[in-house]
Amino acid sequence: MNYLAHLHLGGSQPGEMLGSLYGDFVKGPLQGRWPADIEAGIRLHRQIDVYTDSHPLVLQAKQRFPSERRRYAGILIDLFFDHCLAAHWHDYAEEPLQRFTARVYQVLHEEAELPGKLAFIAPRMAAQDWLGSYRDFAVMEQVVAGMSRRLSRPEGLAGGVAELERLYLPLQQDFREFYPQLQDFARLKGTSRSAVDQLK
């Protein structure tokens, strides 16, 4: 999943939000490098990624793409699923999207030492409202172009937005079936984590 989904699933407290994002920027063992709540968020982020990548509905979504695109289908699906979440946010969250994203940007602004590239992109994320802008499918063109620039073979995503547009309805259905299951998974992991913390 991409930034918005990880933030939505990771918890509402500042440390949980930070951990939800750090998961894309912090690699390797943690072992106390960060505060406990942030490290818990990073671990949940990693668990969500593993669950998502192996889920039958996500594998089904990847199969909808032409064989030559499969290597990059996961990237496109992550972005498209964030679009679906933003576009239908009220189906999955009680807090309005604009209020939620404002809280995320405030947490990032108040954190003095963001890791790696996150420190560089966080101000742009807030200024350009990356998270809220996912509602507009037209934004996918810009997002995919940005992703292409970070790939060793940028041509791999060429024409990707056109394929997302062609597959819009079946991929949206994949999302609607998958996301509630992912919410249940994240909620279970979060409950298990809280129970362990209470025993300490």
TrEMBL record:
GO molecular-function annotation terms?
Answer: [acyl-carrier-protein] phosphodiesterase activity
Q: Name one GO biological process term.
A: fatty acid biosynthetic process
Q: Which Pfam families match?
A: ACP_PD
Which terms are listed as keywords in the entry?
Answer: Fatty acid biosynthesis, Fatty acid metabolism, Hydrolase, Lipid biosynthesis, Lipid metabolism
Q: Which InterPro entries match?
A: ACP_PD
Question: What is the protein name given in its UniProt record?
Answer: ACP phosphodiesterase
Query: What organism is recorded for this protein?
Result: Stutzerimonas stutzeri (Pseudomonas stutzeri)
